Amino acid sequence: MRRILIAVSCVLLSIIVTAQPKSTGTTSELPKGTFFKNGAVCLSPGYKVTFSKDGKVASISKQNGNGVTSGRFACSCADKDGDNCSTTTRGEKIICTGDACCSLLVMMDPSASGSLATSGSADSVKWKTLIIPKTTIKTTSN
Q1: Within a domain: 123
Q2: Domain containing 43: what range?
Q3: For residue 96, which of 49, 67, 74, 107 sits 20 to 30 Å off, Cα-Cα?
């Protein structure tokens, strides 16, 4: 019985570790419905954030849309597995909470349509570490 419990625990731990989003590069491009403001990523009026059950992924979509997501944000540590990072909002800002090493990742649809179906698999699209400009210039991506 003890061996079974240990085996099940190992399997569950490996699932949790491999489920963490990993970056495949960097970008400063944002999905529709978000913009940069004062060194942060902000939500545009008319858009909403929907969080995954575990709070790790934030999906961006129109408030009156049909469930089509323009992009997703997640937080992860580049230098360690099994990090303690979550994605949340503070006012209009989309931020990371948790470990000090957490950084914001972004995922957008690679197709020409510029939208990512909410039922789409995260495996089919690559996460990129978001490089956030430190300027106060507003860049809209509507």
Answers
A1: yes
A2: 21-141
A3: 67
| 83 within a domain of the structure (yes/no) | yes
b/e per residue 75-109 (b: at least 16 CB within 10 A): bbbeeeeebebbbeeeeeebbbebeeebbbbbbbb
Taken in order 42, 48, 54, 57, the sign of the CA dihedral is: negative
The per-residue pLDDT for 43 is 94
Number of structural domains in the chain: 1
The structure tokens listed for 82 are 């099994």
pLDDT, tens digit (0-9, with 9 covering 90-100), for 113-139: 443 333 344 444 588 888 888 764 454
Closest CA to 41 of 51, 32, 50: 32
Tens of pLDDT along 37-90?
988 999 999 999 999 888 889 999 988 877 788 899 998 887 665 568 889 999
Q: Would you say how long the chain is, in residues?
A: 142
